[in-house]
């Protein structure tokens, strides 16, 4: 039993010494992201940004907001009263 406790304490000691800072370093993933100024300075990027926003409305992500179907929580009353 003493041998098992020694092995477990040794294993726990080794795992506490190992750092994960390199694993959690994710700055390199976001280096090439565009800023808002970059998006709206180019007409093509702006059109892509706008098309992506409208695509979310038609994919079913926001059906409770932008649909005339029978959803229990339809928050867009202009869909019914704006026609």
UniProtKB/TrEMBL annotation:
Domain of life: Bacteria
Protein name as catalogued: RagB/SusD family nutrient uptake outer membrane protein
Lineage: Bacteria, Pseudomonadati, Bacteroidota, Bacteroidia, Bacteroidales
